[in-house]
Amino acid sequence: MNGLDDLRGWTLNTAIQSHIDVYVSQSTFEGVQRSFPYLVAKEFASGGGDVPEFKWHIIEDNVPFEILDTGIQITPFAVHHGRVFSVVPPLAPTSSVTTISTPVKPTTLLSKLLPDQERLVDEVKNPYLCFGFKFGHDIVYISDVSYIPEDKWPIVESRPSNGRALPVLVLDCLRLRPHTSHFGLENAVDSARRIDATRTYLIGFGHEVAHDDLVMLGEAVGGKALETETLTETVKAGLELIQQGKNVWVRPSHDGLRVFVGGDGRVHDSSY
């Protein structure tokens, strides 16, 4: 969100285009409205600088929409991206001089709550929602996910009338181990097997696992027998997380990767 203001360079004097179409949920739009009101209504601008030109489009969960006149139907579907608490712990006053940031343990925050507030924080936890997208019957894109609700699977798994498989799945995989807000390797592989796309590309990983290690793990998910003596410790740890299951094509994405989907659903890319 913080980069939205910098897009004024695109629309100032129509340098690149006259305006930018932005597609967001109602809650995201309201978040922008609170943080950057001048990006939504020009009357809130200070008058001392230029602001970008946006055309806002509100999209809804499970409701297909089309970008301009492309003819491509895009269906957003809400998945879990971690969780939020319904009761926000009160903030302690900040002194005029602060020290180096120190991680705060949850118990420290909870100790500042009243007993009834602590009970609510412990009992009421809501998922933080994030959109995944399905582009026609060709691509499913889920960049930030910790859990796919069961009522969203019919959208993800639906196929065209000819019954062909989904050509491309783009799926979150932060690291080997599970994470509160993201899929780990085991979650990603389980979902890839269930969706059973022609090709699954993993995205969103950190720097804990080397690209070549992710390639080897993807090959193992596809059924390739790896030579034990050549495996890194990271690959060995990853193999322990991958349970036996259907062989599916999985590879890590990377900068500059281009993926092509033909009209018949065939897929090829610029690297693999």
Describe this entry's structure for a reader.
The protein is built from eight helices and eleven strands. A seven-stranded mixed β-sheet has the order 3-4-5-6-7-8-9. Strand 3 and strand 4 (73-85) form a beta hairpin. 24% of the residues lie in helices and 22% in strands. It is of the alpha/beta class. It folds into three domains: 1-58, no CATH class; 61-84 and 126-269, Ribonuclease Z/Hydroxyacylglutathione hydrolase-like (Metallo-beta-lactamase, Chain A), CATH 3.60.15; 90-123, no CATH class.
Summed up:
By secondary structure, the chain is of the alpha/beta class.
| Biggest sheet statistics | 7 strands, mixed
Oligomer: single chain
In total, how many beta strands? 11
The secondary structure category is: alpha/beta
Assess the beta-strand content as a share of residues: 15-25%
Rg, nearest Å: 22 Å
Helix content estimate: 10-25%
List keywords for this structure.
about 270 residues; alpha/beta; Metallo-beta-lactamase, Chain A; 7-stranded mixed sheet; 11 strands
What is the secondary structure topology, with strand pairs?
Elements: H1 8-11, E1 20-24, H2 26-35, E2 54-58, E3 65-66, E4 73-85, H3 106-110, H4 115-123, E5 125-135, E6 139-142, H5 153-157, E7 168-172, H6 185-195, E8 199-203, H7 211-221, H8 233-241, E9 250-252, E10 259-261, E11 267-269
Parallel strand pairs: 1-2, 6-7, 7-8, 8-9
Antiparallel strand pairs: 3-4, 4-5, 5-6, 10-11
Helix pairs in contact: 7-8
